[in-house]
Amino acid sequence: MKKILVIATGGTIACKRTEGGLTPLITSEDLLSYIPGTRELCKTDAVQLLNLDSTNIRPEHWLMMARCIRENYPRYDGFVLCHGTDTMAFTAAALSYLIQNSPKPIIITGAQRPIDMEDTDARMNLSDSIAYACSEQAHGVSIVFDGNVIAGTRARKMRTKSYNAFSSINYPYLAAIRDGQIVQYIREEITGCPAFYDTLDQSVFLLKLIPGISPKLLLAAGEEYDAIIIESFGVGGLPACDNEEESFLSAAKELVKKGKLIVMATQVIHEGSDLGVYAVGKDAEEMGLLETGDMTLEAAVTKIMWILGQTRDPDTIRSMFETTIRYDRMF
Hints:
GO molecular function: asparaginase activity
Keywords: Hydrolase
Shape: elongated
Helix content: 25-40%
Strand order of the largest sheet: 4-1-5-7-8-9-12-13
Protein name: asparaginase
Number of strands: 18
Distance between the termini: 41 Å
């Protein structure tokens, strides 16, 4: 019988109603008491790592999660991490970079309603996650939610209240779980030992463009951060300005000269960026700015944090960013 470690970090799944609103209060052991049927599948242990609303999750917490999994890795066949939904996609992406090439499954799940409510998705999500963690087909970091298995680098929270809160962006679901039965869509073979990392650089800023935004904001971001991801329009580009010397292009060139890293992304969720299509994008492309392509913003942000934690060499940064990790980019 397989051994699965359930790691609780808080979130809605572990919430109780208080005068101040829903607050994570249910312990890791209590979570398991709501799904007694999983005892027939595997032996489960539980640890209470954190007890936070996921709005309060920070990069140092991702490192704590990765360290907990690393310390327990030899003793368990799989891991299920219970997490709030609001930043779950960021956590899944971050762990995909902090723990690579894992033959053992690392499943992240949560719920839209607390597990102690009569009408809740929590019990199904947690049961499905444990079942999938026991599967021989499960490897690496994934999210299990509403019967779907999503690669950790491809998840995005798309709905704030509905049970089908998460979608897989620009990549198929890895598997589906229906009435305890697993249908595996994408099969992978992972052999050898996992690679664990213990460093992230938080000096990453995401700048969302709106019509008429001032390029001075890009320069201001460059004063505080070492990497700026520009969330542009459509397939991507830098907006022009009446005074070219004060344009986004000139601001980007100034920051690049100072050794800052600039990455071009798109606000459009599906199909990705392509700087080579329009004139407004070609200048950025010719500057050699990095481009996210079909990556999610969550993956782009956390991948840059991971890369800057390992190197500051421009050529190595580009090579690492453009290398596909855990399905994070197709182009």
